[in-house]
Specification:
This protein has 326 residues and is α/β, with parallel strands linked by helices. The protein has 2 domains: 129 residues, NAD(P)-binding Rossmann-like Domain (Rossmann fold, 3-Layer(aba) Sandwich); 181 residues, NAD(P)-binding Rossmann-like Domain (Rossmann fold), CATH 3.40.50.720. Helices cover 36% and strands 14% of the residues. The chain contains 13 helices and 12 strands. Bound molecules: (2R)-2,3-dihydroxypropanoic acid. (2R)-2,3-dihydroxypropanoic acid binds next to loops.
Amino acid sequence: MAKPRVFVTHPLFEPAREILNEGCEAEYWAQPDRPPRPELMQRLKDKEGLICLLTERVSEELLRAAPKLRIAANVAVGFDNIDVVACTKRGVVATNTPGVLDETTADFAWTLMMAVARRLGEGEALARSGIWQGWDLDQLVGTDVWGKTLGIVGFGRIGRAMARRASGFQMKVIYTDAVRALVEVEKELKAEFREMNALLAESDFVSVHVPLLPETRGLFDAPKFYRMKPTAFLINTSRGPVVDEAALVAALEEKKIAGAGLDVYENEPFIHSGLKRANVVLAPHLASASLETRTKMACMAAQNVVALFRGQRPPNMLNPEVLEAS
Ligand code: DGY
């Protein structure tokens, strides 16, 4: 029997290819640039499966061009690139990769926090510049991280992984979320709940870990920055549009906050020129980018696809109702 045909918008990693090639006839996009939209639509004409990255929009238009498609498997936990409602309407299963990137993402949020507080970007530039004159008492003095207050916005898996790391730095941890965590979780992580405004007023570092939803788009706007301490830093490894970048730039210019560590942007790969300043550490959406984690993410996407074509339930379905209806 012919194997189901799957288009993969990236060569993936070998372990993921092995999983996929066993159950499917996979066609891999191997060019260094992301596949152009018309090419993607063309390739999907006869495919039953798609494995894509978050740079590909799985929209109604794309689904229309893929009449045989049964699954769109994202190699990411965030799925704001996928129109899940449109997928459901067309009976296409949508999946993501939750869980495997939590610790790696928290590591990276920590990296940004340390880097911006201790002025690592400026220090690295100076060390490489050839003009460094040697140690000086007040050279690039930054801000301590240890012993400060960490405010976590969004207390899901990644937010909690942040909290766990904070105890080693003797930090006070406060968090906010639409749903308050169980008392046992608060106790275990030594985290105290705050309403958003109280958290902003109290935190030395505000680290954002919410998904991009209609209600979180533009969550960090001018009034939020005005509530933060002028000595506080914003760290964002969630999604760019959660932060109103123009408002962030204004807050930085007006010294309403001390700086920011950013991995994600409102209109990637465009980065607002006002963010390219000394007190902002910028990374190109790298939070989950360790070889171990990215391999696990790719394997998970492959497993989701293979499961569906074996007649099983893909483990990470975003729209389980598609299978329930059939
Ligand atoms: C995700 O998975 O959503 C990240 O943004 C990329 O790893």
